[in-house]
Amino acid sequence: MSTNCQQPKTAFVYTDELSQYQLSPEHPLRPIRLHHMKELMTASGLLTRPNISSLQPRIATRQEIESSHDPEYVSIVEAISDGAIAPGMMEFGLGTSDNPVRPGMYDTTALCVGSTLTASELVTSGKVDVAFAPAGGVHHHAMPRSAAGFGVFNDAVIAMNAMVEAGLRVAYIDIDCHHGDGVQVGHYDSDQVLTISVHESGQWLFPGSGFVQEIGSGDGTGYSVNVPLAPYTQDDEWHRLFDVVIPPLVRAFKPDVLFTQLGIDTHFHDPITHLSLTTQGFNLAVKKLGEVANEIGKWVAVGGGGYDMSAVARAWTMALATMANIELPQSVPSSFTSLQNVTSFDDVPPQQTKSHYLREIQKHNDQTLDQVRTLIFPKFGL
Ligand SMILES: [Zn+2]
């Protein structure tokens, strides 16, 4: 990027501690997914490549967390984490099936937020061109005064607040299957952060928001962009909308930093969502984001949702290779034994949707595009 386009200086920010806990025994978010990912990155030889450095995350301070969350809420999370009983916790979204309480939850979340902060600092200081913190991003539903959708403290909002404080303008691209509502709320009235979320429409999926009409408020009007898609949207159709909306808007905004949330719950095997992307469709998006990042010179990437173990391990390994401009072989190395029956990075694509459903999907998505063109594009001279 800024120094060497061919071999971007790439940081991988992670520690095994980030995979060594459970939210609850039946919870779909299983942090162990990051352990499988790390094993696959190691087996693929990525972590010993000269332009990839593995770095330990720091822990976010309470002051940093409170830059984006109500101190009363932060105190309740801390008390529960220490084993206290907080009768009013439901009011803060805690103690639900999505956000169960558990000992140590404050500490693991502060470490997760810290991993995103470490990645951001490495990039903004110019030490690396791109930094990937895969444990981050999954908190994109967390709100200022409540936990939501597996999220407790919103690492992306916290990290971008620090960047804005330092005078930087940030483009946030969220390709998770779910609307990045917490991040949108966190920067809704700001023209310093452009948030773009591409997701399965809230008409069918949690959190039920993320419609094109949510365009920001005050100074931030036009700086919240939503691209809601029909269920069962596949690679080509997903990319048709991505190409029209994302690169042109980011280029027109001219950010200092690109911040991407790379949820892989868009995958066709994902158990809790209904988009139908393949790992190669996901990786093509990472490549396109990399082209835009290359022009900007600073790229922070975090993980996000992803509930199919194989898809997470493969997609984020492919993403790290793409960031570092390294070609992976098609076959998964035989030394990878952490998961069974994972033989190739690319998927055999799912069956093509029947043509009458395809027309319905395109019709819905065309409507989304028309609305984005009407409500957002003029603001950016597009
Ligand atoms: Zn998600």
CATH architecture level-2 label: 3-Layer(aba) Sandwich
CATH class group: Alpha Beta
Biggest sheet character: 8 strands, parallel
Task: Indicate how many domains the architecture comprises.
Answer: 1
Distance between the termini: 27 Å
Notable features of this structure?
382 residues; alpha/beta; globular; single chain; 10 helices; Arginase, Chain A; eight-stranded parallel beta sheet; 36% helix
Short recap of the structure:
The protein has 382 residues and is α/β, with parallel strands linked by helices.
Structure description:
This protein has a single domain (11-380), classed as Histone deacetylase domain (Arginase, Chain A). Helix 4 (105-124) packs parallel to helix 5. It has helices spanning 32-43, 62-66, 71-81, 105-124, 155-165, 181-186, 235-253, 279-296, 309-323, 355-375; strands at residues 10-13, 52-55, 130-133, 170-174, 193-200, 224-229, 257-261, 299-302. The model has no long low-confidence stretch (mean pLDDT 96). By secondary structure, it is an alpha/beta fold. It has 10 helices and 8 strands. Bound molecules: zinc ion (ZN). Zinc ion binds at residues 176-178, 263, 265, 304-305.
